[in-house]
Amino acid sequence: MEQKENICSVAKKCGGCRYQGVPYEEQLRKKQRYTEGLLKKFGKVEPIIGMEDPYYYRNKVHAAFGRDRKGNVISGIYEEKSHRIVSVDDCMIEDKKSQEIIRTIRGMLKSFKIKTYDEDTGYGLLRHVLVRRGFSTGEIMVVLVTVSPIFPSKNNFVKALRKEHPEITTVVLNINDRQTSMVLGERNIVLYGPGFIKDRLMGLTFRISPSSFYQVNPVQTEKLYGKAMEFAAMTGHERVIDAYCGTGTIGIIASKKARDVIGVELNRDAIRDARMNARENHIRNVRFVPGDAGWFMEGMAAEGEKVDVVLMDPPRAGSDRKFLHSLLNLSPEKIVYVSCNPETLARDLEYLTRRDYQVKKMQPVDMFPVTDSVEVVTLLCNRRTRPKMK
Ligand SMILES: C[S@@+](CC[C@H](N)C(=O)[O-])C[C@H]1O[C@@H](n2cnc3c(N)ncnc32)[C@H](O)[C@@H]1O
Predict the structure, then answer these.
(1) 223 and 243: one domain?
(2) Of 51, 155, 165, 311, which shows the fewest CB atoms inside 10 Å?
(3) How close is the Cα of 264 to the center of ligand 1, in Å?
(4) CB 94 within 8 A of CB 56
(5) Quick one: a GO biological-process term for this protein (predicted)?
(6) Residue 165: which CATH number?
(7) In this predicted complex, what is the ipTM?
(8) How far apart are CA 269 and CA 246, in angstroms?
(9) Count: domains in the chain
(10) Counting atoms of ligand 1 from 1, which one is nearest the CA of 213?
């Protein structure tokens, strides 16, 4: 493993890599202690699954664009809790090729007379650049986030960019003209290629659009999803819900071992991707529904529908009461909860374990080395379900 424990000059301003300078084994010990502190009251926390090479793993790289005091174009991250851009040239956790592409774009702006957007004056065009890379396919998507759909000499710009980086398979212009802290706006204009990239996970192919959620650490994602499937231990007869399904990854992987799967997700772009993903992988026993997961499951429970397993992977905020309530009403035999925030996980487990569920297994996975984030897969079983006759 390459040792890079002390090299990032902007770590303090960025706030992302809180474990900068901490040897990887020690990072894992800290994460284990933190997770146990929050979760051991529910049962045994298995030892965290770490990475062999914990650097340059992020396959989604975002850079904000602006100018420094001298008027030079800079690209990087926002200083913690502010909108001041800190110039970043070599981030130790982001994909190297994606960072190279961002540097190339920065160098091209002057000759193409493209101004970076200034939030205070409202003047300029380019706000952010997002690069996503398919780990196993090598496909690369570049998203140029601008305040206006009018991008001067766009065809020549794309041509020049691809000349430097022929690996780029698609370029998208995303229009974000609002005063918002969200990076992406709602409108996409495809400038080159199909407007999405594909990646392979656990032998299946997945399509990723500019705004769809897709795990950012592909090596650890296979371990994470592998654990989720191991915990669900399906036999091929189960009816499954993949709640908060994103582009359908977990549900499509689960469909191989289930009777049928329903995926639910708020983001319509992700649902479109999920449906395409099912088709692409010739999966017929899965369907995807747009909407609020809690609302949808409440509706299923009200109609007396039965579900055996709920796989759930909510955002950092965890699940809301409506969702947890719908879980109790639907009363699946097993819940496999994939969480990227042990604090909200602890809160939701408290709610579920005071009612019908018991925690059986908890497995932390290090999805974000050098940062202080921990992902945890938890298996809960329904106390009211009688064990099935063999
Ligand atoms: C952590 S991601 C998980 C995605 C997916 N399971 C995966 O591994 O790629 C959480 C997802 O929940 C979706 N989401 C957030 N709130 C939701 C809600 N109330 N109902 C359904 N989906 C929701 C987000 O759009 C996002 O795609």
Answers:
(1) yes
(2) 155
(3) 8
(4) yes
(5) methylation
(6) 2.40.50.1070
(7) 0.99
(8) 9
(9) 2
(10) 27
